[in-house]
Design goal:
Blueprint: H1 2-19, H2 21-32, E1 40-42, E2 47-49, H3 52-66, E3 68-80, E4 86-97, E5 102-114, H4 119-137, E6 152-153, E7 159-160, E8 179-182, E9 187-190
Antiparallel strand pairs: 1-2, 3-4, 4-5, 6-7, 8-9
Helix pairs in contact: 1-2, 2-3
């Protein structure tokens, strides 16, 4: 029974891939992309990262080679907060193929950045595009932004870990109160 089910799933995936050139293109880019090195330094926060230009330099030729087109659209844009302003932008990514096929699945991403003027719009767009491509193509960058590897500190100096909300053996909630971060007071709040 499991063999039959497994063969049906494999057959269905092959059929989908054969009828959806976007999936074939994504697979091709994933096969060709190499690790992107952290060559830019954030002097203020003291970390290295891969900037958007390096992502585009690496991925534009690969996407062109495989016929993949990534089209971001801005769905909404709001400035929120009273004391400290935040820009909240919702983007939608549509993937299509050079031959005219447009995948009907879209991908929505939210981005919050401090609202410091016009450059906040570009920063939000660049970061969202970079993170979307990194996730879509599973691009290794050597970034040390892994919740399992780092100790998280809140603004009040207290520490938090994933264990605050669930155990490592499953999603068994120990604390039914939900903690949210209030950007105006820079404090966690239990709701």
């Amino acid at each position: 029974m499991n063999t039959i089910k497994s063969n049906l799933i494999k057959s269905s995936l092959r059929q989908i891939q054969n009828t959806n050139p976007v999936l074939t293109a994504i697979n091709g880019v994933m096969a060709d992309v190499k690790k992107l090195e952290n060559t830019t330094k954030n002097e203020f926060a003291k970390y290295d990262y891969v900037n958007i230009d390096k992502f585009l330099e690496a991925l534009n030729p690969l996407c062109a080679k495989h016929g993949l087109i990534i089209a971001p659209s801005e769905l909404s844009c709001d400035v929120i907060g009273d004391a400290k302003k935040w820009l909240h932008i919702v983007y939608e990514f549509t993937l299509s193929h050079k031959d005219g096929y447009v995948w009907d699945k879209t991908f929505t991403r939210n981005q919050f950045v401090p609202f410091t003027g016009g450059q906040a719009m570009g920063a939000a767009q660049s970061y969202t595009l970079k993170q979307f491509m990194r996730a879509l193509f599973l691009i290794p960058t050597g970034d040390k932004v892994d919740v399992d590897e780092q100790e998280n500190k809140r603004f009040d100096g207290s520490k938090t870990t994933r264990q605050d909300n669930y155990t490592a053996t499953g999603v068994r909630i120990r604390n039914t109160n939900k903690k949210v971060f209030n950007h105006e007071s820079t404090q966690d709040q239990t709701i």
